[in-house]
Amino acid sequence: MKNDDHSLSAKMRELMKKRKHSLGQPPGTLVHVGERKTLKVKLTMTDYNEQVCTEEIIRTVEECYSFMGKPSVTWLNIDGLHNLEVFSELGKHFNIHPLVLEDILNTEQRPKMEDFEHYLFIILKMIYYKEKEERIEQEQVSLILGPSFVISFQEKEGDVFDVVRDRIKKSKGRIRKMGADYLAYSLIDAIVDNYFMVMEKFGERMELLEDELVENPIPPTSQMLHGLKRELIFLRNSVWPLREIINGLIRGDSRLLNKSTIIFIRDLYDHTVQVLDSVEIFREMITGMLETYLSSLSNKMNSTMKILTIIATIFIPLTFIAGIYGMNFSYIPELQWRWGYPVVWGVMLGIAGFMIILFKKKKWL
Q1: 301-313: b or e for each residue (b if 16 or more CB lie within 10 Å)?
Q2: What pTM was estimated for this model as a whole?
Q3: Second-level CATH architecture of 2-295
Q4: Is it the case that residue 109 has pLDDT exceeding 80?
């Protein structure tokens, strides 16, 4: 628990330290804010239509310009955000507002959607579940949707878009027949689908913790419950703004979104609501489990106190008898009696036995 709190405070200090680099700079100045998660920027271009699909890794942004303006959909995926020259070139060619580029480079942005008429700008949080560490990690994904292109920005290589790539390559479903807006929908849908996988892992961990609570509640169990609660809050903060984003896409009147795609986005909205409902249910379950843990500890303490009280109650009359015969008076008749000692022992054991039988009949034992 203390280690988690220390790591969280360390992350906050690191974030504030990185933000200092942008203080005093004019709005729109390109400064990368966040952890540098890859050494090299990777540019992957996928261009496709209903008949043909081309995918290649390009070295410079200029290599994708020849595909723009053709009757096809172009997807440019950028892994790595620290090469400011790439962003400067993209901003000039695609007329991307400097404040948008600044938001892309700031990996601590809240998920949001902005309509700039000739393109849509969307920021999302992609969530991973780390099996070994048993924790979740997030990565910021930014999307720019244009008339015939989608540009996606990621902090590092590796994502949840392999399903989308596979559908494009193998011409599965309707993605090759649809436009860039459907590609953007597919990318968002892949991120939301991965939320369900993360929630499934959460459910499995909670079942294990619930069994531990019933069998043997121990302090580490409480720490794990608090860790889960923090992760759910973290997940909720990533998903809740997503609902607003999708609702904005549905209610907006952007000319970049076709009516045929809006239908799928409405279905995506339902999925987002389901994820949020699951998060709220899990939060309530964790609260209940914490209450169960505290109740179990209280019951354990009560059981211990009951046993100690019973022992103390049994020894009260025995101590009384021992105290009488331990007094330093010169004349105590029983002291001179030959059978005095065994009789006193018999009386004391009889009182103890009688009290134990009485406690059992009262169901105190």
Answers
A1: eeeeeeeeeeeee
A2: 0.75
A3: 2-Layer Sandwich (3.30)
A4: yes
